[in-house]
């Protein structure tokens, strides 16, 4: 696809783990994102890790919890929501049209699949540190619902930016799966222990800027493991001295999914 003028120059680089170096290419990074990052008012960067084909899901997010017309924190640019997708070198015409229209998508040239989730998370840290430094980084999956204004209203007395910490729903005592048929298989080469360190549930978590730096600076000490949340927020975080602070009441995952018809809504 043609890279238009409102996309910044391509960013090449590499992220090194103990056993492998992953080269990356940020193929599209809208100027609109850079301008907000450079303005100096941004407190939280929200990175939604999304699949390239999830156009309808991204549209739903834009029209609901990331709707600038109703979310005050997006209007005053104290918070910014961006999408991170892979397959940046083979985008469809529909995907390119979406990027041209909304200019809120960062695309990277890498295969987008489950095993590369850890790569996208490492790139999320890189973008936060190098391209858009903020006091807090909020990583969310595309199936997460976030109340941005509520989050921002309690940020000063709930999250402490000067510490090296991750705020999340934590898991303790989890054991590695040694079943090679499982997607979350972990070999003894990757992790030898009987139980994982305390780690954050993967769908969403908040990192302080100090935690972002500590994690990035420590990746080279660990063999790459594809179970993203365990690896990044558990193994690497523990080795880097990053605290995991449990906030189960704020990071919930026990909601019941209900399907509503348009006629169920008032006024319809």
UniProtKB/TrEMBL annotation:
Protein name: Hexosyltransferase
Localization of this protein: Golgi apparatus membrane
Organism domain of life: Eukaryota
Gene Ontology CC terms, in alphabetical order: Golgi membrane
Protein's GO biological process: protein O-linked glycosylation
Membrane topology value: Single-pass type II membrane protein
Keywords of the record: Glycosyltransferase, Golgi apparatus, Membrane, Signal-anchor, Transferase, Transmembrane, Transmembrane helix
Keyword Membrane assigned: yes
Molecular function via GO: hexosyltransferase activity
Major enzyme class: transferase
Cited InterPro entries: Glyco_trans_31 (IPR002659)
């Amino acid at each position: 696809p043609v890279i238009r003028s409102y996309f910044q120059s391509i960013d090449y680089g590499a992220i090194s783990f103990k056993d492998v170096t992953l080269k990356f290419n940020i193929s599209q990074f809208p100027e609109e994102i850079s301008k907000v990052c450079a303005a100096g008012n941004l407190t939280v960067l929200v990175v939604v890790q999304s699949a390239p084909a999830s156009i309808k899901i991204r549209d739903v997010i834009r029209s609901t919890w990331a709707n600038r017309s109703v979310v005050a924190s997006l209007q005053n640019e104290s918070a910014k929501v961006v999408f991170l997708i892979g397959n940046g070198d083979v985008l469809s015409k529909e995907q390119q049209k979406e990027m041209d229209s909304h200019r809120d998508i960062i695309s990277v040239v890498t295969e987008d699949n489950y095993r590369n989730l850890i790569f996208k998370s490492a790139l999320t840290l890189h973008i936060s540190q190098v391209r858009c430094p903020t006091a807090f980084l909020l990583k969310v999956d595309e199936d997460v619902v976030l109340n941005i204004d509520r989050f921002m209203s309690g940020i000063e007395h709930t999250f402490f930016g000067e510490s090296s910490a991750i705020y999340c729903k934590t898991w303790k005592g989890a054991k590695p799966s040694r079943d090679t048929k499982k997607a979350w298989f972990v070999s003894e080469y990757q992790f030898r222990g009987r139980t994982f360190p305390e780690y954050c549930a993967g769908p969403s978590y908040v990192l302080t800027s100090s935690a972002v730096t500590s994690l990035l600076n420590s990746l080279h000490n660990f063999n790459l493991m594809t179970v993203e949340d365990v690896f990044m927020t558990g193994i690497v975080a523990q080795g880097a001295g990053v605290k995991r602070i449990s906030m189960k009441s704020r990071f919930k995952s026990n909601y019941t999914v209900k399907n509503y018809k348009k006629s169920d809504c008032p006024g319809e």
